[in-house]
Amino acid sequence: MRTGISRFRLSSLAAAVFAAAVLAGGGARLAAQAQGVSALDSLGRRISLSAPARRIVSLSPEATEALYAAGAGPAMVADTTYCDYPDAARALPKVGGFSPETLSIEKILTLKPDLVVTAGRLQAQIEAALVKLGIRVFAYEPENFVAIADGMMALGELAGTKNQGIRAAATFTGAIEKVKFLTSSLPMARRPKVFWEVSDEPLMTCGRRSFAHQLVEAAGGRDIFADLPGPWPVVSAEEVLTRSPEIIIGPDDLGARMSEARLSAKPGWKDIPAVRSGRLFLVPADLVSRAGPRLATGLLAVLKVIHPELVP
Questions:
Q1: In CATH terms, is domain 185-310 a member of 3.20.20.140?
Q2: Which of 167, 171, 172, 163 is nearest to 52 (CA)?
Q3: Per CATH, is 7-176 categorized as 3.40.1190.20?
Q4: What pLDDT, in 10s, does the model give residues 18-28?
Q5: End-to-end Cα, the chain, rounded Å
Q6: Which pLDDT does position 230 carry in this prediction?
Q7: How far apart are CA 289 and CA 270, in angstroms?
């Protein structure tokens, strides 16, 4: 799995943006309308439409954010109760929550979508039902920064807003690479050990297959549980104590559960360097938990926590 973006890829994105800029916007859109469009989804499947999608339903918050960033907002006809960004997404009709049992296939069908964007394998049951009914489905389930950029370009292609999708991908990639450049020359001694707390009951952290892990590493930290393969493993309080993090980070929806008093009350935790020094930080949950365009802003928030001296 790729976890970085090469200089060649950056150059390719920049070239693509330049090419898009010299195209006549109206002419390019008319050309797209005159022929079919296709793109690869996050699972590597080619999704083809006879014409750019004009009625899109999104079934996940991160897919919704990616769609709007790629210029597909005008084609959106519905999303879910968890889709709260951008503001326009709040006003759309809702087809349910996130889990398959909360999503209404009947509501989706009444909207007559020409494309439904799902959260991938987490919503495989819904996808199977929709495909049987002849509805095109695109799985948006990126697993790294490159895949987020690819996803926005693919969604722009399918919505007939290819140029905006390319620009959104380039902006996102540039922001990620800027932070990586700032931390790239840090010696190991300046990369503090970080514990990312996802939940306190049970105590969960980020494994190396999670975006939280990628954020910590890109921002110049060392994820103390980088050796764990799953995305959200359950760990013991004793193991955290043994690995002795210098910084503890968590999403802000943990609230008081991440307070110094709460953490100090755990047996032995008052001696953990992060707790002893008060380096306990909450970061905006939506910015670090959604695999969409705002993850670049989330990375900057994590950089400010781990290396405030590097923030421009």
A1: no
A2: 163
A3: no
A4: 344 434 444 44
A5: 30
A6: 83
A7: 28
Q: Provide the token pair at 285.
A: 């949950």
Which of helix, strand or coil describes residue 199? strand
Domain spans of the chain, in order of start: 7-176, 185-310
Residue 163's Cβ-count burial label (10 Å; 0-12, 13-18, 19+) is buried
Fold match flag (7-176 vs 185-310): yes
Contact of 195 with 249, CB cutoff 8 Å? yes
SS3 assignment, position 275: helix
Q: If you average pLDDT over residues 20-40, what whole number do you get?
A: 60
pLDDT in tens, 120-148: 999 999 999 999 999 999 999 999 999 99
Q: Kindly report the pTM of this predicted structure.
A: 0.87
Distances (CA, A) of 280 to 206, 258, 260, 268: 16, 7, 7, 16
Give me the residues paired with residue 280 across strands.
248
Do 152 and 293 meet the contact criterion of CB atoms below 8 Å apart?
Answer: yes
Q: Where are the beta strands (DSSP E) in the chain?
A: 37-40, 46-49, 56-58, 76-78, 115-118, 137-139, 193-196, 199-200, 203-204, 222-223, 247-251, 280-283
Residue 239 corresponds to which amino acid?
E
Residues 292, 58: Cα–Cα separation, whole Å: 13
A 10 A CB-CB count for 99 gives: 12
Structure tokens at 259: 């307070």
**Residue 5 to residue 15: CA distance in whole angstroms:** 15
